[in-house]
Design goal:
With 379 residues, the chain is of the alpha/beta class. It has two domains: 127 residues, 3-Layer(aba) Sandwich (Rossmann fold), CATH 3.40.50; 171 residues, Winged helix-like DNA-binding domain superfamily/Winged helix DNA-binding domain (Arc Repressor Mutant, subunit A, Orthogonal Bundle), CATH 1.10.10. Helices cover 41% and strands 17% of the residues. The chain has a seven-stranded mixed beta sheet with strand order 6-8-7-9-10-11-12, sandwiched between helices. Strands 2-3-4-1-5 form a five-stranded parallel beta sheet, with helices on both faces. Helix 14 packs across helix 15. The longest helix has 19 residues. The protein is globular and about 65 Å long.
Length: 379
């Protein structure tokens, strides 16, 4: 399969040489470096400095340097690319110095697989000095670029079993897909968490991920996880925060306008990529052997919708909705002054009506998303 053009590429290109750093965040192996290489092909007439902070020798080039030293390192390069920048202490100050001194004459591009040391350390120094982009695994919309819609929909089962990481999509044999996903979850997925956040027991982190993988689509109780794993609730919450900042999982909060009616304070936790989720519980079964197809489809659709909104700059806050009497909606988007409710079903044909209490809000929309109408929703 040829390299897929990422939807973010033209958006990022428009932000070049505007006097601001470009920061691209996303999990390891989603294609951040490949994206930069594709972008840099548009600047063959410009000299480019590439620094890979995963290499300690290269990372040391940017440690605690004043601008005069940085300027010597940059030299006459017009584009500076810093890969996995979260591994460099005080990287925000370094980028600020470069942006403030070079302004529009040079472009600083930074990638990071965790916000733990990147966006947190750059938010204050780079206020008004950066454009930030989130790169996800391949989206259905991007996959469509090199094949037909019919062929793409035929691949849905593979997407739900093995996910959308670039290398996984490029690999054909199922055994090889499985091996690569297991390697990804064991070696790369939370590399930054283990190295920088004093996680004393990696096995607990792995057990937590497995527990979360088994609960996708359901409300998660930190109290129950605490009891199951034998750790306190604060540690559970801390670990989930770290997993979210490393782009492994994301949370949906319950939507509430009426605190007496909407009951849940528990959150739902989903995975950015369902292939990762399946690898954690070692379940790559075909659809006819799965008991979790409904929840798997829900996770997949919500993550695809996040990609679509991000790439097309559709700004919304997302929730789920549930009441005391059991009425529920899988995904709620609060955008444009209106509430959009989406019930997510794999198969078409089910007669699902909007809950009466949902309609009581007024100015709401309701739609059932299934395999047949996914196009209107995510690509």
């Amino acid at each position: 399969m040829k390299i897929i053009t990422r939807t973010l590429e033209p958006l990022i290109l428009k932000d070049f040489f505007k006097g601001k750093a470009i920061i691209i965040v996303g999990a390891r192996q989603v294609g951040k470096t490949t994206l930069f290489n594709q972008i840099s092909a548009n600047f063959k007439d410009k000299k480019i400095l590439k620094i890979n902070a995963d290499n300690p020798t290269e990372a040391d080039l940017l440690r605690k340097k004043d601008f005069n030293m940085l300027d010597q390192i940059v030299g006459d390069n017009e584009i500076v690319f810093i890969d996995e920048a979260q591994r460099i202490p005080n990287i925000g100050i370094t980028i600020k110095l470069l942006v403030d001194n070079y302004k529009k004459t040079k472009q600083i591009v930074v990638t990071g697989s965790s916000t733990i040391n990147l966006l947190q350390s750059t938010s204050e120094p780079l206020t008004g000095r950066k454009f930030t982009y989130h790169l996800y695994p391949i989206s259905i919309e991007e996959f469509l670029q090199h094949t037909s819609q019919l062929e793409t929909m035929k691949q849905i089962e593979n997407f739900l079993r093995f996910g959308m990481y670039p290398e996984i999509l490029e690999t054909k044999p199922i055994e090889e897909k499985t091996r690569l996903l297991q390697e990804l979850t064991s070696s790369y997925l939370f590399k930054d968490i283990l190295e920088f956040q004093e996680v004393r027991n990696p096995q607990i982190l792995n057990d937590l991920l497995k527990a979360l993988a088994l609960q996708i689509g359901s409300e998660v109780s930190y109290t129950e996880l605490s009891s199951l794993l034998g750790i306190d609730m604060k540690t559970v919450e801390r670990y989930i925060n770290l997993l979210e900042k490393s782009f492994v999982v994301f949370r949906l909060s319950p939507f509430s306008k009426n605190r007496r009616r909407e009951i849940s304070k528990n959150k739902k936790i989903f995975f950015y990529d369902v292939g990762i989720r399946n690898a954690l519980i070692d379940n790559f079964n075909t659809f006819d052997k799965r008991q979790d197809l409904g929840h798997l489809w829900e996770n997949f659709v919500i993550s695809e919708r996040m990609k679509y909104r991000e790439y097309h700059r559709i700004y919304a806050t997302q929730y789920f909705w549930r009441t005391y009497d059991g009425s529920e909606i899988d995904l709620v988007e609060d955008r444009e002054g209106k509430l959009f409710g989406y019930e997510i079903k794999y198969k078409a044909g089910e007669n699902v009506k909007p809950p009466k209490k949902w309609l009581e809000y007024g100015n709401v929309d309701f739609e059932v998303i299934n395999k047949d109408n996914l196009k209107r929703f995510a690509f």
